[in-house]
Structure formats: C-alpha cells, structure tokens
Design goal:
The chain is of the alpha/beta class and about 140 residues long. It has helices at about 15-25, 45-55, 115-125; strands spanning about 25-35, 35-40, 60-70, 75-85, 90-100, 105, 130.
C-alpha cells in the first residue's frame, strides 16, 4: 500500500505552516511528512535565520548536524526534535542545505544551540568546512 508522503501546507502543524509563510520561496518544499518527520531545504545563507525562527517558537533540542560530500555538492542536514501538532508529541524536523564543492564555509548556529559546537567541530575536522560567526 503506497501513500503520498508529501503533505499539503494546510495539513502541516502550525509551526511549519508559519515557517513556510515566513521564509516563502527560501524554504523549498513542500515540506515532507513521514511518521512525524518533516523535512525542508533552504539556501545556506538562511540557515541561521531558519534555526532562530524555530528556536523562537519553542524548539529546544538540536539532535544532530550531519554533512556529507557528493559529486555535485556538500549537503548539511540539521535535525531538531520538537513537540508539535495536535498531539503535541515528539516530531523530527530536518532542514537541509547545500554548499558548492568549492565553498567551504557556512554560518554557525552555536549561538542559538550551544550543542551545535560539537557537531560543527566534527564536520570541520572531517570535511574542512568552516563555521563562521554571524555578525
């Protein structure tokens, strides 16, 4: 039995509808839903703003940051745990961004989520990506 994994914007929890509304075309989607897992993509320049938006709306847990290099680009995924939706149960929100292979820097989110420092240091060590403080 196959089902469509893409939810319509009006079916998304309020937090994610507001994220889509606030960032418009800078959040690519539609956001996908898979058993309380939501994901979206954005340009690297918007990562600090998207993360701050989520933190200001009650998301308190950054679970992980992963980065990997492909033949075309570098992908960085930010994984958050949030209590959203009608049931107010744990859901995973993933925001993915892409860097060109020749671009090895992105803004840090450690001022928003202190535990980001550990993930960013590991990515710097393994992929030589520099995490910059946003001014």
């Amino acid at each position: 039995m196959s089902r469509d994994l893409t939810t319509k914007t009006q079916q998304l929890p309020l937090l994610l509808r507001n994220l889509k509304k606030a960032f418009g075309n800078n959040i690519q989607g539609p956001l996908e839903y898979r058993e309380k897992e939501f994901s979206a993509t954005t340009k690297a320049v918007f990562i600090p703003d998207v993360v701050k938006f989520l933190a200001n709306r009650g998301i308190r847990k950054l679970a992980a940051i992963y980065a990997w290099e492909t033949e075309k680009d570098i992908k960085i995924s930010y994984h958050f745990i949030a209590k959203i939706g009608n049931e107010f149960s744990d859901s995973k929100i993933t925001i993915i961004t892409f860097l060109p292979l020749n671009e090895r820097s992105i803004f840090s989110i450690k001022k928003i989520f202190q535990n980001a420092r550990i993930f960013e240091e590991d990515i710097t060590k393994n992929l030589a990506i520099e995490f910059l403080d946003k001014k």
